[in-house]
Amino acid sequence: MTSPQFTPRVFSGIQPSGGLTLGNYLGAIKRFVQMQDEGMETIYCMVDLHAVTVWQNPADLARNTRELAAGFIASGLTPEKSILINQSQVPEHAQLGWVFSCVARMGWMQRMTQFKDKAGKNAQNVSLGLFGYPALMAADILIYHATHVPVGEDQKQHLELTRDIATKFNHDYGVDFFPITEPVIEGAATRVMSLRDGSKKMSKSDPSDASRINMTDDADTIAKKIRKAKTDPDALPSEVEGLADRPEARNLVNIYAALNEQTVEQTLAEVGGQQFGTFKPLLAELAVSRLSPISGEMARLMADPAEIDRILARGAEQAREITAPVLARTYEIMGMVR
Ligand code: AMP
Ligand code: TRP
Q1: Nearest ligand (C-alpha, residue 47)
Q2: In the structure, which protein residues have their CB atom closer than 6 angstroms to any atom of ligand 2?
Q3: Are 215 and 208 in contact (CB under 8 A)?
Q4: Which site in 7, 112, 242, 282 is 20 to 30 Å from 223, CA atoms measured?
């Protein structure tokens, strides 16, 4: 349970390590916008310090950070209602990240499946930062005393670790200082799968571009990728249970439901019985109608990068009004002489 003395505050972040995918949009950004529009206090971050846990070409990192900011704004986040920042402009993230590296235990970190997946057989040769990444993520959240974190399914374990870190800090220092954050993993598409393989997550790092829909894909590309998406030969079921052993069919139905602001049940009531030859063009049309206004607006915003930089600079100033006092109090609790 979130402790009652903490006012509701939303934080989330995305890595500027490549283009945005439909998975990012449906699993995360769409929910960011809803929470902003519900009137909650919201802070959204391009986590550039997380991105450099693996090598980033400097020019690409800068471009990807601005493009991600453009994606946020084009999707409906606005600097009037949300604080929009890139992580490296708010130094308290990294400062609290160090403190949390001293709170988190090796055993906790070694259980993180995202690290195991990313490091693979190469675990001796990846950066120390990749291993410590979840401690910085906990700091991103807790430096704001954030109570709610909207993310896709794949971030659940990192949010559990964030709760463990807050609990251990509070316990070790005998305080009730950091909130126990609630993950917000909701909607029909909390885990969008690859279009080529229903057992793999849709990801910007998949070598096959056909496996994902990028937010910047044009209408023809989107339609072509959906047409070629892997499916099975059967018609769509009318009940959710009928999707149980059909990961590819389930994925396309989930995407349709999320794009159409429906539950999966509602979608199946509409499209149950259809063959993929009928359903795929409907899905493509829906995807294009939702995504093309966003990609058009992204392109427009990217034509004026100086304006994006001004938004991020202003966001950093607003953010530091929150983060500086939280860091100062953390240090004081720990006995650091101020
Ligand atoms: P990342 O691109 O790894 O920085 O992820 C940014 C956000 O998008 C996180 O909240 C992820 O959980 C979410 N996300 C990334 N890929 C997917 C996916 N395939 N399905 C649902 N959510 C996703
Ligand atoms: N780890 C997240 C991802 O890979 C990105 C992230 C960093 C994040 N800090 C965060 C998400 C804080 C939510 C809150 O997708």
Answers
A1: 2
A2: 11-13, 15, 47, 50, 137, 140-141, 149, 151, 155, 158
A3: no
A4: 242
